[in-house]
Amino acid sequence: MHAISIGTEHLPQEIISRLDEEFQFLHGEGIDVEMSRQCRGNYTFFDCSVRSASPEAEARFRHYLASAISDVIVDRWEEHLIRRIIRGQYYYFSRDEQERILAYAGRNLTTDDHGQDRSLQHKLSRKARILHRLRDYLDQNRELVVEGFVHFRLRDYLEELEDAVDRAVDDFLMEREHKEFIRLLRYFVDAQEPRVAEVHVLIAPGGSFRLVDAEGNSLRSDLLEDFVAEVAESEISHEDLLISALITLAPTRLVLHGPVPPAWEEGVGIVKGVFEERVAQCLACSLCAPPALAPGEARGAGLVDNPRGGSVE
Q1: SS3 assignment, position 199
Q2: Whether residues 73 and 121 fall in one domain
Q3: Domain shared by 135 and 68, yes or no
Q4: What is each CA distance from 62 to 15, 21, 43, 194, in whole angstroms?
Q5: CA-to-CA distance for 43 and 39, rounded, in angstroms?
Q6: Which residues are within 8 A (CB) of 205 and not within 5 positions of it... i.e. 6 or more apart?
Q7: End-to-end Cα distance, the chain
Q8: How many domains does the chain have?
Q9: pLDDT tens, 30-83?
């Protein structure tokens, strides 16, 4: 008889459920497994044995055991491990903030470096590495305590989770700074009287933009004199120029025309966050497909241009 004992402090129900599933597969292959349960202090042990003289059957038995435990670790216990890392290393964040960090950590474990969802591939990769480690261990040992195995035999796995948490904290802090930045800009806008009732924003595919009134005419140059003087010698991005110009104007209504180029998504997101209900998106009027701007046209005094070709006077 080949017997292996699986012990756990925190996961008895999860483990017995997965062992039952795996042993059903073994039974279908003609391999019968007996399982009994006993408690030792705070730990529950499942004593599993297979009656077979076949080395192949015993190897299958160990593989199915390892498969069940690897599933439990990744599917059921991983979130608990992440929470414990957050509570231990970042205890000074509030409960709500820790929940946000947990969400970011989960996202970091499921996406690649380009932000693409790879949750299935990444989860399968973690399971495969843990399964391989469990197989090696069960080939040499007849007792396995899951918590001890994770902490002493899966240090690289725990380091992967810790790295995901560290990056999650960075993401959370950036999000918090972004929200504070939006709140500050919103305060500036709300604290001043609008210089113009309505502004239309035309963003060219190349990244330049134009600001016009409701009829498509360029805004009066005197509305932006202070702004142009401030940024004439500055080396800032088109997105920052647009945000600064709109905050200077503080329009009552703001219309964004045409599809947003990918490079502008963050800047347009800030505009929408600052102006909130004042912002409307238009995709189907004559202003939504303006002619291309010349290189550098969105800088300095050339910032505000008539889409029909005239320049600011």
Answers
A1: strand
A2: yes
A3: yes
A4: 15, 14, 21, 73
A5: 6
A6: 261, 292
A7: 95
A8: 2
A9: 888 999 999 999 999 999 998 776 888 899 999 999 999 999 999 999 999 999
